[in-house]
C-alpha cells in the first residue's frame, strides 16, 4: 500500500506509533500534486525486531544504527561507548564519538571553553592571599575551568612579578590587556572619577574571546566548603550577562558576573559609556543594569539565584560557626573585617561557634594554600627545619609572601545589629508576656478584613474523606483497590475523636449518593436521591452530620454535577442511561463524540471542556432546562435535608459557568468550593463567584511540586517567596483552599520518594500560607499509595484503606499537623494575618503570618546538614520590624519535640539567627508554648474524665455514644432550613459569648446578614428521640436534671452534648453518686403512660421555652388531649401553663413540686419517654438574647 507517513499504515485512527506494527518505508518519488511539494511516496512495511527511527526509541546503552538509504534502523548496543573504553566528560557518547555540551570541547569533552577571571594588580599581600584562597576553594568545589588573572598593561609595573609567579604556580593564566580608560567626559567629574577609577578595567573581560563564557569574580570572596560545583554557574546562566540581583533590587551585583565575551559588545558598551553622565553609587553594576534594560542594546540580563553572592544577603553575613549559609559564594563585600585580617581561629584560642562562618571557611582553605599558617607560635613556625615558613611577629606564613602587620591581626567585633547577649538576658522576663498584646481567643474580626466568605468555611483545616477508605467498625484487608473496601459512615462516627485530636474543624465527605457497580469513590452516580447502601443509611448520614456539628466540625459534601453513570456507558443509548436516576434519557446528556482523557485534551477550549465526556462518562447537558432545574433543585434539597454546611463541586472546570454561578437558585447561599484544575490564579479565581465560594489552589500545588519534588529541575525555595508576593495578591480577597493531595492526585509523599523532611516542609507551607488547608485522609499517617506505571490514569492505588496504615496519633507527621492547626485555631484561622516573606534563597524560605514565623526548606533527608540563616530585621521590613514584632519578644519553635529548647529573642533592628536542620520550624510567642502545653494537659485530663464517665456507675454517654446503651434510644434527625432574618425579631440576636461559638464570627453587614442562622453558622438540627423504660432525675439544689435508663442493674445517663462537654453538662450539674443511690431500686411500671419531656435540652429563658421547647409538643397533641400520654416540663410552669391550657393538655401536664432548685430530690420513670434535642447553630447550645 502507498503511504506518505507511518500513520497511514496503522489500522486504527490516532494509534500511537510505538504500538503500530507497520511503518512507511520512504521511496524516491515526490508527490508533485501536494502543495507542499516535498512529500515522498512510500510503501507500508512490517517493523522488524529492534526497529527504530531515532536513538530515543532505543534503551540506555543503545543507538539507532541506520543504513545510508533509510530513515529506519535497528537498535544496536553501543560497544564503543562502554564506560570502560571511552569517557565523554560533559558530553554524550554515540558510536564511539563524543558530542560535547556547550562550554567544553576536545575529543573527550574535557577541555573547557569557559573560564573564571578576576582583576589583579598592585602590591597588596592581602589581595594575593585572598586570591589564592579563592582559587583553592574553586578547585576544591570541582571547577576545572581555566582561571585568568586580568592584569592591565599599565599596572604591570606596580604588580610584583613574584606575586604573578605564585599565581601561575597555582595554575592561573595571566592576561595583559590594554588598559580601559574612563571616558574623558566622565573623568572630569571628580565624584565619578573616584568611584570608577578602580573598576574600569573590569570591562576587559569582554576581550577574552577565546572563551564561550567567563565568570568575573571579585577577589575578596571564597566558595563555600559545601558549595555546589562552581562550574554550575555557567549552566544556570542563559543570557548575555548574568548576575545576582543586588540588595538594591533595581540593579545587579557585579561581585560575580557571567558574560559572553565579544569585542563588538565591549566597543558598544564604551560608546554608550562615553555619553553617560549619571552618578551611580555602584557604577559598574548600576550602569550595566541600565544598559541591559534598554532593548535597543540587545543584551539580555539574567538574575541568578542569590546563592552565587552572599553580598546581597548582607555582606559577610552574620552567620557564625560551621553551619551552612546556603550560599555558594561568600563575599566580603563592604564588611569591614576582611578574612585575611582576622586572627586565626585555632582550637585552643577561638570558639568556632562564635566566629564568623565566612572567616572559618576562608581560613579552612587558607590552611590548604599555606600550611605554615597552621603554626600558631614562633617556636612551631621555626621548628620545621626548613626555610619554607617565616614568623611574621604574630603569625606564620609562607616565606614567599612578605609579612604584613595587619594580616591576621583583627579580632571579631560585634556590629550595631549583632544580638546583645546581655540585653537578651535582661529581656528574659519577656517569656511571660512576649511583649505584645496577642489576639484573644474568639475575638470577632472585621468581615471586610477577611477573605470573602471565609467565615462560612472551617477556620483551621478541612479533612477530605473518601468514605470507602477512611474507616469501618469491621476492618478487613482490602485486596482490590478498584472496588469497595468497606469504609462507611459508621466507621467515620467511630473515628470522630481521632479527627478532633488532629485539630481539624471541617470534614469534606465524598459523594454519598448511590453508585454504579464498583463506584466506591462516589463519582459514578446511579441515583441522586438514594444514599449509597455500601456506606450506610440516610439516618446514619443525618446522625453523622449532627455529631460533626457537636464537635465543632463543619460538614462539607462532595457533589458531582458534571457527569453520571459509569465507564463504557453510551450516553446516546436509551438502554444504557435508563438505570441513571433521575436523568434516564439520552437527551439529558451531551451528544458530542469526544472525551477528555489525555493532557492535551484539556487545552482545546471551553467548548470541549464543558461538553466532552470526562474519562468517557456521560456528561450532563446543562443547556437542557430539565437538567438545569432538577440539578439545581437537587443541590438545594441535598444540602437542606442533611444540614450540610457547604459543598465541594467536583470537576467544576467542566461545568457551564452560567450553571455554577446560579447555585443555588433559591434559598440562602450554599458555600461551594470548586475543583478547577489550572495553574493560573486569575483563571481559577474566576470560578469563585458570590459571597461565599472558594476554589482549590492548584497554582500553589504546582509551585510546591516544582519546589519540593527532587530532581534536576527542582526549583529554589525563593520561588515560593516570589509566589507569595507576586501571585498571591491575584486572589483578590477570595478564599483559596491549599492542598498537597486530593482524591485525583498521587500522594505527595510518594512523589518525594518517602522523604519525610520534604513532606513536613510542604505540609507547613499549605497550613502556614494564606488560605484554608485541606488534608486528604491519611496525610497525617504518611499514606503513600502505589502508582500504577502501566496505567498512570488508574488512580485507585493512590487511595489506600486507612485501617491498613493505622490511626496512630503519636507519629511525627500527626503531631506536626496538630501543632500547626492548634496555632491556626489559636489565631482564629489566621485569615486576618497577611503572609510576608522575610528571607529566601535556593534552600530556605522564612515567612511570617502576624506573630508566627515559619521556616521551611527543601534540602530533604538525604542532605539535611546543619544550616544557619540570618534574618535582617531592618532589611526585610519597611517598618524595621520582623513580622509583627515591634518590640523585643521571646519566641520558640513549637514544632520541636521540646519547644522550650529552641527559643530566641526577636528584637527590632537586630538580626535573628535561625538554625535549620531539614525539618520545618514554626516560631511562636513563648506564651503560646505555655498555652499549648496547658491545653494538652487539659485534653489529657478531660480524656481521663471521659473514660471515668464511661466506666463509673452511673455511666454517662454523649450523643454519639447513645447507641452503646443496651436497648438504646431510637431517634430521628431533622435539619431545619434557614429562615430569612426578617422573620426573627430585630432585637433578638445570636449571642457572641465566646464559650458558645465555634470560631470567631464577624458581625455581618446588612447585605450579608439575611438568614437565621447566618450562613457560616451551622443549621439547626432537631433530634426527636424515644427511650423505653426511661426516668428523669432532678437532685436537690440542682437546676438541669438528667434523663437516664436502668438496664441490668446499671444506670445509663443520656448526655445531650459532645464527649468534651458532657463532663460540664452532666458532671458539674448533677450529683451522679446521689442519683445512683437514690434510683437504684427504681421500677418502671409497664402500665405507666408514655411521657413527652419538653425541657430535656431547651429550658433556659422565655424565648427558648416558647420557641425551642413548646413546638416539640405538636406531634403528640391528640394523645395528650385524649389522656393516653402525659407532658412534662421540669421548669417554666407559670410561663407555659397558659399555652398548655389553650391547647387543652394542661390536665395531662406535670411538673416538679416547685421551680428548681428543689429542696428535695425529684424523679419519675415511665414506660417510654419522648424528647427532642435542638442542636446548634451555636455551640454548645442555641442561645438568642433580646
Give me a quick take on this structure.
With 1186 residues, the protein is α/β, with parallel strands linked by helices. Helix 1 (125-140) packs across helix 8 and helix 24 (756-768) runs parallel beside helix 26. The longest helix is centred in the C-terminal third of the chain and has 26 residues, at 926-951.
* Fraction of helical residues: 10-25%
**Count of alpha/pi helices:** 33
Q: Mind telling me the C-alpha Rg? A: 38 Å
Separation of the first and last Cα atoms = 90 Å
The percentage of residues in β strands lies in 15-25%
| Annotation, overall tally of beta strands | 54
SS-derived structural category: alpha/beta
The low-confidence runs, each spanning 5 or more residues with pLDDT under 50, are 433-437, 1176-1186
**What's the rounded overall pLDDT mean?**
87
What sort of overall outline do the alpha carbons produce when their principal axes are compared?
globular
User: What can be said about the biggest beta sheet?
Assistant: 9 strands, mixed
Amino acid at each position: 500500500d502507498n503511504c506518505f507517513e507511518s500513520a497511514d499504515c496503522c489500522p486504527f485512527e490516532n494509534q500511537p506509533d510505538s504500538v503500530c506494527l507497520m511503518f512507511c518505508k520512504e521511496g524516491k518519488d515526490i508527490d508533485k500534486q501536494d502543495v507542499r511539494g516535498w512529500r515522498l511516496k512510500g510503501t507500508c512495511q512490517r517493523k522488524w525486531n529492534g526497529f527504530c527511527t531515532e536513538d530515543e526509541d532505543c534503551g540506555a546503552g543503545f543507538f539507532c544504527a541506520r543504513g545510508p538509504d533509510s530513515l529506519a534502523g535497528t537498535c544496536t548496543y553501543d560497544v564503543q561507548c562502554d564506560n570502560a573504553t571511552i569517557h565523554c566528560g560533559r558530553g554524550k557518547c554515540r558510536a564511539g564519538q563524543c558530542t560535547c555540551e556547550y562550554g567544553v570541547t576536545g575529543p573527550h569533552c574535557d577541555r573547557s571553553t569557559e573560564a573564571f577571571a578576576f582583576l589583579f594588580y598592585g602590591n597588596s599581600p592581602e589581595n594575593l592571599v585572598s586570591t589564592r584562597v579563592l582559587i583553592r576553594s574553586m578547585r576544591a568545589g570541582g571547577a576545572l575551568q581555566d582561571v585568568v588573572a586580568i592584569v592591565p598593561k599599565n599596572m604591570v609595573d606596580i604588580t610584583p612579578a613574584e606575586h604573578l609567579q605564585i599565581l601561575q604556580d597555582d595554575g592561573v593564566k595571566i592576561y595583559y590587556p590594554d588598559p580601559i580608560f574612563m571616558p574623558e567626559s566622565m573623568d572630569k567629574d571628580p565624584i565619578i572619577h573616584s568611584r570608577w577609577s578602580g573598576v574600569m578595567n573590569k570591562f576587559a573581560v569582554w576581550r577574552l574571546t577565546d572563551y564561550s563564557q567567563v565568570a568575573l569574580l571579585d577577589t575578596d570572596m571564597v566558595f563555600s566548603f559545601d558549595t555546589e560545583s562552581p562550574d554550575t554557574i555557567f549552566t544556570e546562566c542563559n543570557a548575555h550577562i548574568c548576575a545576582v540581583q543586588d540588595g538594591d533590587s533595581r540593579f545587579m551585583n557585579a561581585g560575580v558576573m557571567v558574560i559572553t565575551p565579544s569585542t563588538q559588545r565591549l566597543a558598544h558598551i564604551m560608546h554608550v559609556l562615553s555619553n553617560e553622565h549619571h552618578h551611580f553609587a555602584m557604577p559598574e553594576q548600576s550602569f550595566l543594569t541600565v544598559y541591559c534594560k534598554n532593548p535597543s542594546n540587545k543584551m539580555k540580563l539574567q538574575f541568578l539565584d542569590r546563592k552565587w553572592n552572599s553580598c546581597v544577603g548582607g555582606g559577610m553575613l552574620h552567620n557564625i560557626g560551621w553551619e551552612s549559609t546556603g550560599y555558594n559564594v561568600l563575599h566580603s563585600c563592604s564588611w569591614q573585617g576582611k578574612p585575611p585580617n582576622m586572627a586565626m581561629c585555632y582550637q585552643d584560642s577561638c570558639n568556632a561557634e562564635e566566629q564568623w562562618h565566612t572567616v572559618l571557611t576562608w581560613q579552612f582553605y587558607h590552611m590548604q594554600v599555606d600550611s605554615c599558617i597552621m603554626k600558631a607560635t614562633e617556636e612551631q613556625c621555626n621548628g620545621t627545619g626548613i626555610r619554607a615558613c617565616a614568623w611574621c611577629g604574630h603569625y606564620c606564613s609562607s616565606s614567599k609572601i612578605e609579612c604584613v602587620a595587619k594580616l591576621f591581626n583583627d579580632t571579631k567585633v560585634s556590629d550595631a545589629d549583632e544580638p546583645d547577649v546581655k540585653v537578651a538576658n535582661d529581656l528574659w522576663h519577656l517569656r511571660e508576656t512576649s511583649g505584645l498584646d496577642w489576639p484573644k481567643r474568639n475575638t470577632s474580626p472585621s468581615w471586610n478584613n477577611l477573605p470573602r466568605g471565609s467565615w462560612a468555611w472551617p477556620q483551621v483545616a478541612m479533612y477530605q474523606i473518601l468514605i470507602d477508605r477512611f474507616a469501618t467498625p469491621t476492618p478487613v484487608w482490602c485486596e482490590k483497590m478498584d472496588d469497595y473496601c468497606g469504609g462507611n459512615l459508621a466507621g467515620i462516627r467511630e473515628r470522630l475523636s481521632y479527627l478532633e485530636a488532629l485539630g481539624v474543624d471541617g470534614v469534606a465527605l465524598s459523594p454519598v449518593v448511590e453508585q454504579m457497580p464498583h463506584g466506591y469513590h462516589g463519582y459514578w452516580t446511579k441515583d441522586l436521591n438514594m444514599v449509597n447502601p455500601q456506606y450506610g443509611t440516610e439516618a446514619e448520614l443525618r446522625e453523622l452530620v449532627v455529631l460533626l456539628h457537636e464537635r465543632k466540625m463543619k460538614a462539607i459534601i462532595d457533589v458531582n454535577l458534571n457527569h453520571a453513570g459509569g465507564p463504557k456507558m453510551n450516553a446516546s443509548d436509551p438502554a444504557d442511561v435508563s438505570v441513571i436516576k433521575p436523568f434516564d434519557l439520552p437527551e439529558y446528556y451531551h451528544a458530542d463524540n469526544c472525551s477528555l482523557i489525555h493532557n492535551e485534551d484539556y487545552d482545546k477550549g471551553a467548548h470541549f471542556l464543558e461538553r466532552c465526556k470526562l474519562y468517557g462518562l456521560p456528561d450532563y447537558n446543562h443547556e437542557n432546562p430539565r437538567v438545569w432545574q432538577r440539578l439545581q433543585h437537587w443541590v438545594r434539597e441535598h444540602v437542606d435535608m442533611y444540614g450540610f454546611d457547604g459543598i465541594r463541586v467536583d470537576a467544576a472546570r467542566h461545568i457551564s459557568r452560567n450553571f455554577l454561578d446560579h447555585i443555588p437558585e433559591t434559598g440562602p447561599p450554599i458555600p461551594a468550593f470548586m475543583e478547577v484544575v489550572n495553574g493560573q490564579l486569575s483563571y481559577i479565581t474566576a470560578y469563585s463567584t458570590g459571597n461565599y465560594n472558594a476554589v482549590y489552589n492548584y497554582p500553589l500545588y504546582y509551585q510546591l511540586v516544582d519546589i519540593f519534588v527532587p530532581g534536576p529541575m527542582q526549583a529554589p525555595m525563593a520561588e515560593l517567596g516570589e509566589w507569595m508576593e507576586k501571585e498571591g495578591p491575584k486572589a483578590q480577597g477570595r478564599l483559596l483552599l491549599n492542598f498537597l493531595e486530593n482524591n485525583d492526585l498521587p500522594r505527595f509523599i510518594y512523589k518525594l520518594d518517602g522523604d519525610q523532611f520534604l513532606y513536613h516542609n510542604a505540609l507547613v507551607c499549605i497550613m502556614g500560607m494564606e488560605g484554608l488547608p485541606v488534608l486528604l485522609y491519611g496525610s497525617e499517617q504518611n499514606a503513600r499509595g502505589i502508582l500504577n506505571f502501566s496505567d498512570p490514569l488508574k488512580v485507585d492505588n493512590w487511595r489506600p484503606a486507612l485501617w491498613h496504615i493505622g490511626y496512630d496519633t503519636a507519629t511525627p507527621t500527626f503531631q506536626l499537623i496538630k501543632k500547626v492547626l492548634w496555632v491556626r485555631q489559636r489565631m482564629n484561622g489566621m485569615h486576618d494575618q497577611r503572609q510576608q516573606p522575610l528571607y529566601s534563597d535556593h534552600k530556605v524560605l522564612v515567612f511570617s503570618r502576624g506573630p508566627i514565623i515559619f521556616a521551611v526548606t527543601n534540602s530533604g533527608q538525604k542532605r539535611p546538614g546543619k544550616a544557619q540563616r540570618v534574618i535582617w530585621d531592618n532589611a526585610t521590613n519597611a517598618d524595621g520590624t520582623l513580622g509583627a514584632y515591634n518590640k523585643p519578644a521571646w519566641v520558640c519553635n513549637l514544632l520541636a519535640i521540646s519547644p522550650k529548647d529552641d527559643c530566641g529573642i526577636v528584637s527590632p533592628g537586630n538580626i535573628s539567627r535561625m538554625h535549620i536542620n531539614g525539618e520545618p520550624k514554626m516560631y511562636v510567642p513563648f506564651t503560646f508554648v505555655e498555652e499549648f502545653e496547658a491545653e494538652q494537659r487539659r485534653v489529657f485530663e478531660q480524656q481521663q474524665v471521659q473514660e471515668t464517665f464511661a466506666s463509673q456507675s452511673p455511666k454517662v454517654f454523649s450523643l454519639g455514644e447513645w447507641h452503646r446503651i443496651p436497648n438504646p434510644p431510637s431517634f430521628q434527625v431533622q435539619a431545619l432550613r434557614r429562615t430569612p432574618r426578617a422573620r426573627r425579631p430585630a432585637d433578638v440576636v445570636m449571642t457572641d459569648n465566646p464559650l458558645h461559638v465555634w470560631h470567631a464570627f464577624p458581625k455581618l453587614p446588612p447585605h450579608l446578614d439575611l438568614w437565621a442562622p447566618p450562613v457560616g453558622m451551622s443549621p439547626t438540627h432537631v433530634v426527636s428521640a424515644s427511650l423505653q423504660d426511661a426516668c428523669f432525675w432532678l437532685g436537690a439544689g440542682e437546676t438541669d436534671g438528667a434523663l437516664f435508663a436502668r438496664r441490668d442493674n446499671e444506670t445509663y445517663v443520656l448526655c445531650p452534648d459532645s464527649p468534651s462537654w458532657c463532663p460540664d453538662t452532666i458532671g458539674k450539674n448533677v450529683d451522679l453518686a446521689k442519683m445512683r443511690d437514690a434510683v437504684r431500686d427504681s421500677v418502671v411500671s409497664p402500665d405507666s403512660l408514655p411521657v413527652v419531656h419538653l425541657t430535656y435540652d431547651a429550658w433556659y429563658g422565655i424565648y427558648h421555652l416558647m420557641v425551642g421547647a413548646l413546638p416539640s409538643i405538636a406531634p403528640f397533641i391528640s394523645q395528650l388531649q385524649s389522656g393516653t400520654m402525659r407532658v412534662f416540663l421540669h421548669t417554666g410552669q407559670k410561663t407555659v401553663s397558659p399555652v398548655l391550657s389553650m391547647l387543652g393538655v394542661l390536665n395531662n401536664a406535670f411538673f416538679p413540686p416547685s421551680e428548681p432548685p428543689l429542696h428535695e430530690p425529684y424523679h419519675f420513670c415511665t414506660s417510654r419517654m419522648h424528647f427532642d434535642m435542638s442542636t446548634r447553630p451555636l455551640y454548645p447550645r442555641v442561645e438568642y438574647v433580646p
